[in-house]
Amino acid sequence: MKAVGLYRYLPIDHPESLVDVEVETPHATGHDLLVRVQAVSVNPVDTKVRAPKDEVENEPKILGYDVAGIVEAVGPDVTLFQPGDEVYYAGSITRQGGNSEFHLVDERIVGKKPGNLSFAEAAALPLTTLTAWEALFDRLEIPIESPENKDKSMLIISAAGGVGSIATQLAKKAGLNVIGTASRTETSDWAKRHGADHIINHYEPLAPQLKEIGFETVDYIFCLNATDKHWDGMVEVIAPQGKICGIAETKDPLPLSDLQQKSATFVWEFMFTRAMFQTSDMIEQHHILTNVSQLVETGSVVSTVTETLSPINAANLRKAHQKVEAGDMIGKIVVADM
After folding, report:
1. Which of 250, 268, 286 is the last residue of a domain?
2. Which of 22, 119, 142, 183 has the highest count of CB atoms within 10 angstroms of its CB?
């Protein structure tokens, strides 16, 4: 089958950073689905895995952690899907990714594609949706629907990116007062369209800006970029007994004792945890994607795709990586076989 992979970890402007390859078509066993890939999306994790280092692969390493496609075959233990089903998922970072003609994925981390979306629109959703949902409702333990949420506030740092675009929608649907950060007119407008009630600039001190719009503190913070850079500001504005969730790794350990007097919580969200460790609740990702598919079909959540390249090949995936690495993406970029 056709695939896009790498043998060496190179800068994205190198023509061999991602290459077109032919590999053997895999076979579905156990709980696996064999999916005919229709569209993929590129995320920062793709660029981080591909980032230059000295390792050399004997077999092509295939990236791609957002997929929408059609089930081609199922393993003998599969109970949730059947051939012909249209699905979407993020997959597992410990297995080959989805930048290929066919892809194996465990059914327990797969959802049925929203019926009102194209494959390209659906491919923009899984990784960011799972990250945002797990952060808000699992890690920060925000009630999915509660009258109490109307008196609670959430600050989303980097609200116009892939995860932020979903998090603002979910936080607003949960009933929270949502403050997003953005630094450009176009990103501010995007975040407001997706659920942010207020916008402040993440390049400026947080506390004075929050006070200006009527918030001395916030109950929840979801930090999607530069955790260590924003640490002092988050410590200052988090409410006593508030909760902070981060997804961006840090160069140095965080001084968690800074949160002691406020009895505040800091927690990490890593979307691949359940699949990587085969946790007992791994099937929760199937449930999350199923729930979100229903929300999309009713118009409560919208796809965040902003650009689509076609077809799925090394040249277009290199272009997509370059755009993500530039660091100024709004929403998501998708590569699809149209």
Report:
1. 268
2. 142
pLDDT at 145 (0 to 100): 83
For 229, the token pair is 């850079």
Q: Which amino acid is at 198?
A: H
**CB within 8 Å of 121: residues ≥ 6 apart:** 303, 305, 334
Residues 36/102, Cβ–Cβ less than 8 Å: yes
Verify that 28 and 117 share a domain, yes or no. yes
Contacts for 297 with CB less than 8 Å, ≥ 6 apart: 114, 115, 116
CATH of the domain at 32: 3.90.180.10
Q: Which of 49, 52, 132 is nearest to 93 (CA)?
A: 49
- Does the pTM exceed 0.70? yes
Residues 68 and 181 both lie in one domain: no
Instruction: Give 228-283 pLDDT, tens digit per residue.
Output: 999 999 999 999 999 999 999 999 999 999 999 999 999 999 999 999 999 999 99
**C-alpha distances in Å from residue 114, one per residue of 33, 89, 244, 250:** 18, 12, 31, 35
Torsion, CA 248, CA 283, CA 166, CA 219, rounded to 10: -70
**Nearest alpha-carbon partner for 312 in 4, 47, 1:** 4
- Paired strand residues for 62: 5
Residues 235 and 308 in one domain: no
Can you tell me the distance from the alpha carbon of 176 to that of 170, in angstroms, rounded to the nearest whole number? Answer: 9
The secondary element (H helix, E strand) that includes residue 52 is: none
Domain with 192 in it = 129-268
State whether 250 and 323 are in the same domain.
no
End-of-domain residue from the set 226, 246, 268: 268
Residue 205 shares a structural domain with residue 282: no
